[in-house]
Amino acid sequence: FELHLRGRRDGPLLQLDEARLAYADASLVAEGSLPRLPTFAGGRFAATLQGADLRRLLQLLGREVGTAGPFTAELSVSASDDGRDRLTARVETAHAALRVRGVAGPDADALRLEVEGEGGDLRTVAELWGLGRLPRGAFDLTGALVREDGVLRLDGPMAVSVGDADASLEGAIGLGAGAVGTALSVELTVPDPAPLELPRMLARTVAE
After folding, report:
1. Cα 200 to chain center, whole Å?
2. Burial label, 32 (beta-carbon count in 10 A; 0-12, 13-18, 19+)
3. Element (H or E) spanning 150, and its range?
4. What is the pTM of this model?
5. Is-contact 165 137, C-beta < 8 A?
6. Who's near 163: CB < 8 A, 6+ residues apart?
7. What is the 3-state secondary structure of 24-90?
8. Can you tell me the distance from the alpha carbon of 136 to that of 21, in angstroms, rounded to the nearest whole number?
9. Which of 87-101, 109-123, 162-176, 193-207 has the highest mean pLDDT?
10. Residue pLDDT, tens place only, 82-119
């Protein structure tokens, strides 16, 4: 690997002009400024991770898959003087894209995220990340999440479509060990479940 750093420290100011890490066929580039250390107030940070094959990254996470194609991930965070952090993130692979933007306040629960995503085939994406056997079909999703009392709660229904099927999710996802506090409800509309290759019991329920 190759690592390059360029920056300076001047009293409470930490200026990172460039940090570049290259490993195999992937690279990470970051830059930012923290004017009021040890706080993040008034600070900003941006990073980009990209590579020729997502398979290498998944191997580092213990996932053995075939060729997964190129990928790019971007993160940008900026903080105002009142302690509210604004963030944007984008992940693009050969199979899917995900975009997140949000605001985080000084309190642990002061977090709101807006999420959008789409992809060519939901099952392919799920298998890459070890998420089990999900339905087949092109998909897209949009919704918002807020953190409340140690859980991520859907701020209104999250709309998900897979092929000709439409789903609406509501509830919360636990953030602690064992995802305690998770409670989700799903409303699913499927004109014809056959193309989705749903699990047999679920497909029979939807068809009825």
Report:
1. 29
2. buried
3. none
4. 0.80
5. yes
6. 135, 136, 137, 138, 139, 195, 196
7. CCEEEEEEEEECCCCCCCCCEEEEEEEECCHHHHHHHCCCCCCCCCCEEEEEEEEECCCCCEEEEEE
8. 37
9. 87-101
10. 778 899 999 999 999 999 999 887 676 678 999 999 99
